[in-house]
Every structure is written in C-alpha cells, then in structure tokens.
Design goal:
The protein is an all-alpha fold. It contains four helices and no strands.
Length: 162
C-alpha cells in the first residue's frame, strides 16, 4: 500500500518524540539535582544550561531510535555503508531548516506560534521522510555493491577411500 511507509514513518516519529521527551525530563532532573547553582559547590549549571544539555540528549536519543526503527521497520533497509552519517546529516539539516522556518513564520509572517509549529513540523517531516527514503536508506547502486565470495563448505570434503 502506498501509504504504509509514510504512516510507519510518522509512527516512528511519535515514538521518537516520546523517547526524546522522556530522556529530556530524566536528564534535566539529574543535571539540576547533581550540579548545583549555589556558588562554591563545584560545577554549576543554571537551569537554562541544564535544559539545553537535556534537550541535546533527548534529541540525540530520539534520532538514534528513529535510525534503528526506520531502517529496520519503515524502509526495511539492510545495513549499508554511510547510512548513519546520511541519516544524522539529514536530521541536522531538517532541525536547522525547522528552526529557521519557525522564526521566519513568527517574526516575518506574523503567524501564531502553534500554527507556525504545526506547519513547520509538517514540512520538515515530509523533507525528512523523502530524504530518508531516497537518500539515507536508499539501496546502493549495483556498482557500489561488493560481490561476496561464494559460500565455502563448512566441513572439509572426505578424501576418497582407497
């Protein structure tokens, strides 16, 4: 069915979003409790720095989940050289595109934040899906597939009786 891959992609995205949020909350709580903002208590993190670090950790966990599930379930792509760097590059690109687009939508177009977020998220999801399908997890062209040697017998042949 033509809609199966996009629906799986959205489902993986929702799972990744939940993982992102859960890791963010755990990391933020741990960083806030572990690294005091009281002077003289060793390493100090402000709540904003703790939130920024936790956001990076949550986002990274979500991207890692997206890589594994999209490769195995959505696109059923066998492991191939370069998939992970392409997938990470694509996600960094769509993150930058989305961050820039939402700022433009709110500041230049005067859209409400919620509407801007929805439109930008829809657009970057489409870009991410197409980039994943046709670039990150695309099958290797035949000239890049290395030939495998024929299977060798696992048990040596018995010498002729005689």
């Amino acid at each position: 069915m033509a809609w199966r891959e996009p629906l799986k992609f959205v489902a993986v995205g929702l799972v990744s979003l939940c993982i992102n949020f859960a890791v963010f909350r755990v990391l933020y709580a741990w960083l806030s409790a572990t690294f005091s903002v009281t002077p003289g208590d060793g390493l100090q993190l402000t709540p904003a720095v703790a939130a920024a670090l936790a956001t990076a950790g949550g986002y990274s966990a979500g991207v890692a989940n997206g890589f594994v599930l999209n490769r195995a379930w959505t696109f059923k792509a066998p492991p191939a050289p370069g998939q992970l760097p392409r997938f990470v590059s694509l996600n960094v690109l769509t993150l930058l595109m989305g961050s820039t687009a939402i700022a433009l939508c709110v500041d230049q177009l005067g859209l409400a934040l919620g509407l801007a977020w929805f439109l930008v998220t829809a657009g970057t999801t489409v870009v991410n899906f197409l980039g994943s399908k046709y670039w990150a997890f695309a099958p290797l062209p035949p000239e890049r597939v290395t030939a495998r040697p024929p299977d060798q017998p696992t048990v040596p042949a018995k010498p002729p009786a005689g």
